[in-house]
Specification:
The chain is α/β, with parallel strands linked by helices and 498 residues long. It folds into three domains: 177 residues, no CATH class; 127 residues, no CATH class; 182 residues, fumarase (Alpha-Beta Barrel), CATH 3.20.130. The chain has 16 helices and 15 strands. The chain has a five-stranded mixed β-barrel with strand order 10-11-12-13-15. Strands 2-1-3-8 form a four-stranded mixed β-sheet. Strands 4-7-5-6 form a four-stranded mixed β-sheet. Strand 12, helix 14 and strand 13 form a beta-alpha-beta unit. The chain is globular, with a radius of gyration of 23 Å.
């Protein structure tokens, strides 16, 4: 067999990254479809419907499922007898593939990697470097798994070294209750048990690329302690009632994966890494015969879902005519369609706005009586106004909220997941409201954006402030003017007794 060339590796990984950006794995689609059929909570069912609709739209349009197109994770199992002709380190080869995939003109992916984790945190501009994991194995082939991991779920990673007699399941349940909804459930939980600190983390991350098979496991019943642990955690997490997007419901996780390894007698390392509704990965093998190819899922896999019922019951809100009476009339869980002017602003923009206020200067945009959307979109292509534009995790803005609401007159914030205590206090103090868009439905959300133009901080790239004009953008009222939150009300209503 001819050698495995650098070109084989680069072409395969570049194509894989483009592929996973636009297509959910088929087993994940099936599991989400089953969750949709089972779901009884209206808000959660509507969220899953939006996620499935968005997934099919992305498959048809070959556009990213989520605006956070993720850090490139590449897992390589290199056969010790594999013939290669590489002249460079594998990291350099893989980074060439990432660069090509994320800068593709016809479908650019959002570059989210910053070079220096301290200080300026300047974006590398091409999403390199990849997070590369290499393992030497028997054989003469190259097995590669490529995944794209978004920041919202990655940020909810947790690790602990438990007492050897402690319950792993109890620790997982206690931990999941502290994660909130920023990891965009329903998704997966990857768990690594044993080994060392780094080994446990690597096992947890790699487990998220395993097939979704919980339905089969539950049907036949567990046959070993690891399968028993998976089933126990699956049931107990879903009994928490967190539900899709944290709105309260029957399904919080679609599957639980557990990898384990021998460990020190005095230790029980446990790593927990969630994967969001934008679960994206693909596996392929290189043997020297050429680059890998990838076949899109059959469109018949997606179920028939409807968004019309939720839209028919939705209340329309004019963002250009906000008043205190309208805001005070909104209740947590209300389904809304918002239209009008909407500004964007994430972490970097909020930080810069507060620095401007500190200097006693005017902001470059007038936010009085306005709404802001926590989003960093993908670049548009063709005749698109904007690329996929789903929400980012809102708690990152909590430390700025009191200052921005108090000194700008901002009235509406739109983002993803719950607000923390600091954010809730600020919202109630200033009589503002907080709405959520569905994480994992970025392409669907972008279709409600009719105009987009940068108006401030353009040097921040995707974190610049844009002025948007939206029409019937679907959102849910998450926090009312009194500080009451659907992310507390919803799960409490659906939580099952122990």
């Amino acid at each position: 067999m001819p050698p495995i060339t650098e070109a084989h590796v680069i072409d395969s990984i570049a194509d894989a990254l483009q592929f996973v950006a636009c297509y959910h794995p088929t087993d994940f689609i099936t599991a989400m479809a089953d969750a949709y059929e089972r779901e009884e909570a209206p808000g959660a069912r509507n969220a899953i419907a939006q996620i499935l609709t968005n997934s099919r739209m992305c498959a048809l349009g070959k556009r990213p499922i989520c605006q956070d197109t993720g850090v490139a994770n590449v897992f390589v199992k290199l056969g010790v007898q594999a013939a290669t002709d590489w002249k460079r380190p594998l990291q350099d080869i893989v980074d060439d593939a990432v660069r090509r995939a994320y800068m593709l003109d016809t479908n650019p992916l959002r570059a989210s990697v910053v070079r220096d984790p301290f200080g300026m945190r300047k974006n590398t501009g091409d999403n390199t470097p990849a997070m590369l994991h290499v393992e030497m194995v028997s054989g003469d082939k190259l097995d590669i798994t490529v995944s794209a991991k978004g920041g919202g779920s990655e940020n909810k990673t947790r690790f602990a070294v438990l007492n050897p007699s402690a319950s792993v399941a109890d620790w997982v349940i206690e931990t999941v209750q502290t994660l909130g909804a920023g990891w965009c459930p329903p998704g997966m939980l990857g768990i690594g048990v044993g080994g060392s600190v780094d080994k446990a983390m690597a096992m947890a991350k790699m487990s998220l690329n395993d097939p979704v098979d919980m339905a089969d496991l539950l049907a036949r019943g567990p046959s070993n302690p690891v399968e028993e642990l998976r089933c126990e955690i699956y049931r107990r997490v879903n009994d928490l009632g967190i539900g899709a997007q944290g709105l309260g419901g029957l399904t919080t996780v679609l599957d639980v994966k557990v990898n384990h390894y021998p460990t020190h007698a005095a230790s029980l390392p446990v790593a927990l890494i969630p994967n969001c509704v934008a679960t994206r990965h693909v596996h392929f093998t290189l043997d020297g015969s050429g680059a890998a190819t990838f076949d899109p899922p059959d469109l018949s896999l997606w179920p028939e879902v409807t968004l019309e019922a939720a839209a028919a019951d939705a209340r329309r809100i004019d963002l250009d005519a906000l008043d205190d009476a309208t805001l005070a009339s909104l209740e947590p869980g209300d389904t809304l369609l918002v239209s009008g002017t909407l500004y964007t602003g994430r972490d970097a923009a909020h930080k810069r706005m507060v620095e401007t206020l500190d200097r006693g200067e005017d902001l470059p945009v007038d936010l009085r009586g306005r709404a802001i959307y926590y989003v960093g979109p993908v670049d548009p292509v063709g005749d698109e106004v904007i690329g996929p534009a789903g929400p980012t995790t809102s708690t990152r803005m909590d430390k700025f909220t009191d200052r921005v609401l108090g000194e700008t007159g901002l009235k509406v914030m739109i983002g993803k997941a719950e607000r923390g205590p600091e954010g809730l206090r600020a919202i109630a103090k200033h009589g503002a409201v907080y709405m959520i868009a569905v994480g994992g439905a970025a392409f669907l959300v972008s279709k409600a954006i009719k105009e987009a133009q940068p108006v401030a901080y353009e040097d921040l790239g995707m974190e610049a402030i844009y002025k948007l004009r939206v029409k019937d953008m679907p959102v849910t009222l998450a926090v009312d003017t009194k500080g009451n939150s659907i992310h507390e009300i919803g799960p409490n209503a659906w939580r099952k007794s122990a």
